[in-house]
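User: Predict the complex with nicotinamide-adenine-dinucleotide.
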Amino acid sequence: MRLLVTGGAGFIGSHFVRKALAQGAEVVNLDLLTYAGGLDTMEDFLEHPNHRFVKGDIRDRDLVMELMKDVDSVVHFAAETHVDRSILEGGEFVLTDVYGTYVLLEAARRTGNIKRFLHISTDEVYGPIEEGSFREGDPLNPSSPYAASKAGADRLAFAFHRTYGLPVVIVRPSNNYGPYQHPEKAIPLFITNLLEGKKIPLYGTGENIREWVFVEDCVEGLWLLLQKAQVGGCYNLSSNFELSNLELAHKILEIMGMDEAWIEFVKDRPGHDIRYSVDSSRIRSLGWRPRVGFEAGLKKTVEWYKTHRDWWEKRKSGDFQQYYKKVYGGSL
Ligand code: NAD
Ligand code: TYD
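Assistant: Here is the predicted structure with nicotinamide-adenine-dinucleotide placed in the model:
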């Protein structure tokens, strides 16, 4: 199997490349190394004989066309991914997430030799749900510029299947967590703030609910979909383990042996979705199950951030200070 993976220097993408190499696949890894990607995220597989890293932009048509010719499948992670950044300025989200996806789809269609195009969408495309869980056929109702851009990409991918017969598979995972996640995201931000002697900044009242899946479980599901998914199919991927952000903060504090004085309630995110929930029976019917329980996954994650200070400290310095000031109104 020869794969073009986009965004393989980022969080989920790097875990996926690790898995694909372990399974014997050849991987061409296209990543722009934005603030979210890093060579240090790929240290253990960068020089693997079946791994070729290409620093480049998914919006570069010539480059994408050239790389597409040598592969038989595409797994597309590359995106601007942080909701709070999309609220500050959405332009890059539209350009990368929507237009970048278009460039990849178009190149895949033109080469005519792509057997699977696995498009990584998100559960956020459905928008919030107060009770119950979304099924794959439910309408999309995204709230943030990030989610709206991802919804555009998701539907473009489907349009390329409908219109041109491109063998697209769409997957909509819920919130992932685990090692190598950028410290702008909730779980690593909370953990690393505590490790630095700073508080957990909880938006609003902390009542918003998210479903958490350990990144290695997610990657197992993606690998399965690459082999077994129905072409043109769409698959939710979630553990169905949900927590309010306040409950999440308490769990992290408990693991770290700290008390709730380390929680600080801060101004809410505009348009903050109250709850995400998706029904994953479709992918479960293919044999996927999450294997890592939340307590075990969270402990592993806390341990990883404790022992990889160099990795996250540099990501929280420099520009991150200005970003933090804009979102939270204070400095780190
Ligand atoms: P991430 O932000 O950690 O990594 C994104 C990667 O894409 C980075 O390595 C970055 O350098 C690269 N990239 C950005 N713009 C690029 C461009 N124009 N050309 C080439 N590379 C570019 O993201 P993540 O959390 O690993 O998410 C991966 C995918 O999964 C995204 O599509 C995201 O929408 C989706 N997703 C993530 C989650 C989650 O909880 N993290 C949940 C559901 C879906
Ligand atoms: P996040 O990791 O940004 O993922 P998403 O918004 O894509 O679900 O945030 C997860 C939840 O945590 C979300 O409800 C927002 C909340 N949150 C905070 O309360 N404080 C923070 O500092 C951050 C980054 C997130």
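The pocket of nicotinamide-adenine-dinucleotide (ligand 1) is lined by residues 6-7, 9-13, 30-34, 36-37, 57-59, 77-81, 96, 100, 120, 122, 150, 173, 175-176, 182 (CB under 6 Å).
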